[in-house]
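[09:14] KT: can someone run the structure on this one? pasting the chain below
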Amino acid sequence: MTNYLGLSRERFSHLCWKRAAGYQFVARQSSAPLVVQELATACVSLPICFIKQSETWQLSAVQGLQAGKNVFVGANGRWIGPYIPAQYRGYPFALAKVVNDRYALCVDMDSGLVGEDFELPFFEPDGELAKPVKDVLNFLQQVEKNRELTLRLCAALDAEGLIVPWEITVRGKDGEKKITDLYRIDEARLNSLDAAALYRLHQAGALPVAYCQLLSMQHIHTLAKLADAHAKIEAAQPHPEKPNGQSGVSFLGDDGKIDFSGFN
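[09:31] RB: done, structure tokens below
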């Protein structure tokens, strides 16, 4: 759970904070919003999809194919993989929209990273934001500004009919289940666009987004491999239902379907 509170001198002048030592706070998040600025780096290690939110399309990293499971977070809270989504790197801070497209810097009071005895103050003695807080605020503002551009680029791709359902079948304990809320670029349609449509996408700056998403799709099987690794670690711990060290789990079927039947 999170409990974000707007940062103010009145509330926080006597408090301090510390940086998160791990990523356990997102261990139950199966997706993370991405912005276009991070796509070139994210697409070489994370599967990326489009998710429909109200009337807009959001770029997201796929972090698991089971609700409440982020396979990129290890049991010790460390991030598994070379790239961490920007969404997470400002924690325990976040921006919240207030009025007239203005944003307020907020802090998660349930993060365990706020208290009187930590080393980093929120404010200097003269009442100014401390430099580490200013640095985080600047980073979050850049991400938020880039998010507006990302929405426009996704809209340009959608206008050309390029965003289609990404059909993924997950094999679980209760049988096969199709994932229905992930979307991808229609590569065949992209390749068949006429010169006018390609020019529109080029002018909008949306073509790199399409190519990055297509490139990232190869990493969808990484989720199965990481789920397998998680299950083996869990199986090596004392467990009342099964002998210590016994897994009997295979997450990647011979038919190419992703099998999570043993991932508890």
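[09:33] KT: thanks! The chain has one domain: 18-259.
[09:34] RB: yep, looked fine to me
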